[in-house]
Amino acid sequence: MEQNLKKSLKIGLIFFVIGLLIGSLIVYAATPSSTFYISSGVYPGAPGFTVWKEGANYFAKDANGQIQFSGTNASQVINNAASNIGYDGSEYIATFDDCDSIYLTGGEYELSGSIRLHGYTKLFGAGMFKTVLRPTATFAGNIIENYNQIEGDWLGAIEDLAIYGRKATQPSGHGIELINCKDWTIREVRIFETKQDGIHIEGGFQFYISHCLISACDGYACYAGNIENGLRAYNSVFETSGGAYNLYVSVGSANEIIGNHFEDGQGTIYMGGYYSKIIGNYIKAGTSYAIYVTSSDNVIQGNNIWGCDATAIILEDAQRSTVVGNTIYNINGNGINVQGHSYAVAVGSNTIENVTDNGISLYGTSNNCTVTGNIITQCSYGIVLSDVNNIVVTANTIRTATNWGIYESGSADYNIITSCNARTGTNGILKLGTNTYVNLCWNNTVWIG
Predict the structure, then answer these.
(1) Are 429 and 415 in contact (CB under 8 A)?
(2) Would you list the domain boundaries of the chain?
(3) What is the pTM of this model?
(4) How confident is the model over 188-209, as pLDDT tens digits?
(5) What is 289-449's CATH number?
(6) What is the sign of the dihedral through the CA atoms of 130, 128, 74 and 192?
(7) CA–CA separation, 148 vs 86, rounded Å?
(8) How far is CA 235 from CA 149, 208, 262, 407, in A?
(9) Cβ–Cβ < 8 Å for 443, 418
(10) Sign of the dihedral through C-alpha 188, 273, 249, 348
(11) Is 381 helix (H, G, I), strand (E, B) or coil?
């Protein structure tokens, strides 16, 4: 009997201890995060700071889980955290993985001032539809900007959050402004209704925009000026901007605009940078040009353009550039214009359908160009050579042009037109230049050559 009693007491004591442990865990887990810290020491992958909101208060705890900053001013709490991380000169930082980070948990952060990021800092949220930065109604300024705008900040990232502007009441401000920076990434960020540009980048070296959604800004969706080694914009959506173009690249080099979706707005892409690529973009509607290039040595390839109220692609003073494999249709204007001093341009293998004016036009001193293998249907004129010389037009097909299939005008001369099928239903090929050579072409009703 005594043995059984001792055994029962022992078992009861064990269950009592287990109950205490479970109870303490439940209490610990239910304790508000603002009153405890995670652990002693830094756990692997811990952000430099974690910022969150409880009621009207914002808190920032460090990598050890200790609350360092708090208050009702979100901008101040986040900037205090940003001022305590980043490169301090004590170690070499080579990649984004080595940067300090600030994690903004899900929720809405009302900002009364700009968030100012130092170099070697990554600001990231819980997702572009979960972490939202929103300025107060009368806040004038950029929502996010780099701290040292005179000398610039190197290596930074902004990811997985949303910026909602208040363009109806804000007097000024971009969504993100980066000045004289180097190697910054903006990834999976949604920017909506900013008073000025969604993203504004000026000077510096090499920027990446990836998987972003930028919409309904009063300025450009994205402006990039004088960037060495280029802007790389991949797989993002730029739409309905109030600026002259959704994406404006003023000068610079080695830009890559690849796989993006552009919709509405006025113009779509302005490219003033050389050695650049505009490849595989989907471009819908717009009241101005879809792609306007004013620099040399660029590639415009594989873009799908439709519904614009002006010429789809313009190359002006764009020497040694290539326009190849684009699909252009339902355009209220010309398909492709090569104008100004755009010599040595290759226009090839494009499909152009249902344009109100000319399929392909070459003007001015755009000499020594080739127009090869294009298919043009439902247009006014198929291919127009106006005042240009030494153009090779070969293996093109023009159907249902309401005027001429291939047409020389002005002082055009010394051109070669071969192996073209100008079955237009109205007129075929009009050769005006005394020294222009036409051979092996179907001129609407008869062969030439």
Answers:
(1) no
(2) 289-449
(3) 0.88
(4) 999 999 999 999 999 999 999 9
(5) 2.160.20.10
(6) negative
(7) 12
(8) 28, 11, 10, 39
(9) no
(10) negative
(11) strand
